[in-house]
Amino acid sequence: MQPVAKARWQIHFCVLLWGFTAILGKLITLPALPLVWWRMLLVTVALLLMPKVWRGLRAMPVRLRWAYAGIGVVVSLHWLTFYAAIKLANASVGATCIALGPVFLSLLEPWIAKRRFDPRELLIGVAVVPGVAMVVGGVPVDMRAGIAVGALSALLVALFSSLNKRLVEHADPLTVTFVELGTGTLFLTLLAPLLPHAGPAFVLPSLHDAALLTLLSFGCTLLPFALALVALRHLSAFGTQMVTNLEPVYAIVLAIVLLGEQRQLDIWFYAGVAVILAAVFAHPLLTRQRGKPSQPELLGTAESHSVVE
Fold first, then answer.
1. Which is the most buried residue in 1, 17, 67, 89, by most CB within 10 A?
2. DSSP characters for 95-136?
3. Are 109 and 165 in contact (CB under 8 A)?
4. Distance between CA atoms of 307 and 309, rounded to whole angstroms?
5. Nearest CA among 95, 36, 68, 34 for reference residue 178
6. Does pLDDT of 309 surpass 50?
7. What is the value of pTM for the model shown?
């Protein structure tokens, strides 16, 4: 198999694995806070065992460590709100809300990167509004809080993706991930007492949850990140972005097949999803750039929107 064709299959497999994160978030019975705490802790410990991470950490300036630590706080809040949205609604709603991430990114990134704003990006944002309205109208009333929390999660993923984009070239991505997720774990530990309704950060999972957390942390985080590192060497930025935008599609299809969530949602929800995804796919078409992407900015987000920008 040719390297480019193999890379395409690899990145599709990565996106499929990322699509499973929403499914596992629904299947794990832990509340959102301990779920995220365990996931971040397990990935951080795994990275801690890699000599490359230690070498990168020693070479990283102190000021840069603090910058990545600040982004890690945003990452932890993004994951917390992402899984809270799934708990408040379902996996399909959570994945749909994350599809708004590129839309928020098109509005935030020019401001953070201090570049000229492109009016075409505003059109993308406007185009999504009818889709969001249909999604809201297509879910039961008791799930609408999940949409609000999920939209906040999408805003946070756009924020840390923009921040990472400015800094990622200054350090090894594995080391950056270690600093950010390690800081995020510590932040959630300190935050837990201030969120009494969310429960404590440390809750010993059952064997069922422990197995699913292990799969989430290693099978849907470390494994796809390692594969993406290899695949991105052979793919254009445009081609990769088009594939990674399929993540919510995979997640919604998996939710239908594995969780039967179509019984909870009506046709307006799926019509709204189609409108949102059309806008998301239009963005790289309107702002197409050739060339190879940079290295992944962060592993294990929700999920692939921060892999290439």
1. 89
2. HHHHTTHHHHHHHHHHHHHT-PPPHHHHHHHHHHHHHHHHHH
3. yes
4. 7
5. 68
6. no
7. 0.87
**Structure confidence by residue, pLDDT tens digits, 287-308:** 665 444 444 444 444 455 444 3
Give the angle subtended at the CA of 303 by the CAs of 284 and 174, to the nearest 5°.
105
Mean pLDDT score of the chain, rounded to an integer?
84
Beta strands (DSSP E) in 143-257 are none
Q: How many residues does the chain have?
A: 309
pLDDT for residue 219 is more than 80: yes
- 14-35: average pLDDT: 93
pLDDT score at 114:
76
* DSSP 8-state secondary structure symbol assigned to residue 256: I
First vs last Cα of the chain: how many Å apart? 27
CA trace torsion 211, 212, 213, 219 (10° rounding): 100
The three-point CA angle 199-46-214 to 5° equals: 55
Q: Residue written as tokens 């953070």?
A: 112
Per-residue model confidence (pLDDT) at position 171: 79
Kindly compute the dihedral angle of the four CA atoms of residues 169, 173, 175, 179, in this order, to the nearest 10 degrees: 90
> Is residue 273 within 8 Å of residue 90, measured between CB atoms?
no
| Residue corresponding to tokens 């590129």 | 102
Percentages helix, strand, coil for the chain (3-state, rounded to 5) are: 80, 0, 20
Query: Would you say 293 and 148 are in contact if contact means Cβ atoms under 8 Å apart?
Result: no
The span from the CA of 111 to the CA of 113, in Å, is: 6
